[in-house]
Every structure is written in C-alpha cells, then in structure tokens.
Design a protein that fits this description.
Length: about 140
Amino acid sequence: MTTITADLTEGAVVELRNGRHVWTADEPIELDGTDTGPNPYELLLGALGACTCITISYYCKRKGWKLHSVSAKYTYDKIHADDCAHCDDDAQGFLHNVTSEIFMDGDFDDEQRARLAQIAERCPVHKTLEAGLVFDETVTF
C-alpha cells in the first residue's frame, strides 16, 4: 500500500509526505500560486515518466540487454473527441489526452526494440491510469 499525506501550507503550496520524503506541489503564478513546485498534473506525469524509465531499466537488466539510457516525455492536454485521431468513433466531448515520447539508447536488435516498445506501455502507473481508478473517499469536518 502506498500512502501520501498532503497539507495546504499557504496560497496554493501543498506539502507532500510519504514518511521518508517531503516535496512540494504548487500552481504557477498566473493561477495564484507561487510556482515553488510542479503543479498536480506535472506531478502525475512525473510519476508516469519515472515509472516508465524504471520499468524499462528493470526489464533490460533482467533480460541482460545493454540499455545505455532511457528518458520519457509526457504531455497532458484536454482535447475534443472530434480532434482525436486515435479515439473510438463513439468518443464524445472533451477527453484527457496524454502524449508520450520515450527515448531509448542501447544495443538492441529489431525484436528487442519491438518488445521494449510494448514494455514502455506496461509500467504499473500507466496500467493503473489506463484502467481507471476507484475512489473510496471520506471527507471529515
């Protein structure tokens, strides 16, 4: 189980803790934040990028494949279904869209490259987001 505690400290600054680490989330100045940390969507994309890089690294290590470097770039945007080339025809309204670019450098043959392209989409955070979440929320006053 993973637990994160978030406390609003001032303005839009939120202190995040997991028991071992402390980090900050904030909003940009134009959204009444102080820009002292990444915004919540940036943190989400950062988690996805970290998970992707770690998953690829672990997979290569387990297979004994020579991975020299891996990096991931994720972009989040809301797009209209009519503008989504890869969406189902029955998609409607605005959609949450994540675009990824994953860069790997290593000594790979064509079969290994094809497999790594599959593995890049199978990190645990990616699978969780793709499957959707179930929320069990309690609000206390």
